[in-house]
Specification:
Elongation Factor Tu (Ef-tu), domain 3, two-stranded antiparallel ribbon, 8 strands, about 10% helix, globular
Amino acid sequence: MNEDTNFEVTDHYELPERGAFVIGHIRSGMFRIGMVLYSPFGNSHFTISGIECVDNIRERKNWNALTFQERPALATLKVCFPVGAMLKARDRDSQQASAGAGGARQRNSVIS
């Protein structure tokens, strides 16, 4: 796992047409679409499919929101990625390489 990729969970949200989001702050590292985000309990992981910026202009606050390829339910995200958790991510390519699998490299969007 990339020890320098840390995402602090502050909330969760769901849009019916887009799915559930984990909302929080990137504390360190670079997050890319296609990375795998791991539960702090080690019981589940999801592939990042979107990284968005969310803001509250009136309060002058901003956050990042992550969506997932697997489209987990909001209740699932709340259990797997609870508020206050510090999450780690790993490149899917490095996960495949460590398992001895090949695969084409994909161009990813990046946010840090």
